[in-house]
Amino acid sequence: QVQLREHGGGLVQAGGSLRLGCAASGPIFVIPMMGWYRQAPGRQRELVATLAAAGTSNYVDSVKGRFTISRDNAKNTVFLQMNSLKPEDTAVYYCYAEVDGSYWGQGTQVTVSS
């Protein structure tokens, strides 16, 4: 069973930055795919960014150029550097891992004030 533990998040003013991190634990060697999703109030959960162990990344258009996903394969951790934050980035951010199934973190709140 894979467990994901997130850290980071919080309250920041528009234009500011935050860094999210997520560590995976359990009987795993290398996780093929890790990433971040988010869910704002009243909206469906949406993909923010994913990063394969081989290095291929994918971003939702609204965060391109502002967010950067990275990972440490040896430690099975994934990070999300969020710059130039906007109020519309406010959401609960969930860590995601795909390894013999899909796993989710508990979520961490990001609030961007205008």
SS field, number of helical segments: 0
Oligomeric composition of the shown chains: single chain
Shape: globular
Strand segment tally:
11
User: From the alpha-carbon coordinates, what is the Rg to the nearest angstrom?
Assistant: 13 Å
Measured by DSSP, the beta-strand proportion falls in over 45%
Low-confidence stretches: none
Sheet with the most strands? 7 strands, mixed
Range of helix content: under 10%
The sequence of SSEs as H and E is EEEEEEEEEEE
First CA to last CA: what distance?
40 Å
Average pLDDT over all residues = 95
| Secondary-structure class | mainly beta
Structure commentary:
The chain is an all-beta fold. The chain is 0% helix and 55% strand. The protein contains no helices and 11 strands. It has strands spanning 3-7, 10-13, 18-25, 33-39, 46-52, 57-59, 67-72, 77-82, 91-98, 102-104, 108-113. Strands 2, 4, 5, 6, 9, 10 and 11 form a 7-stranded mixed beta sheet that branches. Strands 1-3-8-7 form a 4-stranded antiparallel beta sheet, with no helix packed on it. Strand 7 (67-72) and strand 8 form a beta hairpin. It is globular. The model has no long low-confidence stretch (mean pLDDT 95).
Overview features:
114 residues, 0% helix, mainly beta, 7-stranded mixed beta sheet
List strands and helices in order, with pairings.
Blueprint: E1 3-7, E2 10-13, E3 18-25, E4 33-39, E5 46-52, E6 57-59, E7 67-72, E8 77-82, E9 91-98, E10 102-104, E11 108-113
Parallel strand pairs: 2-11
Antiparallel strand pairs: 1-3, 3-8, 4-5, 4-9, 5-6, 7-8, 9-10, 9-11
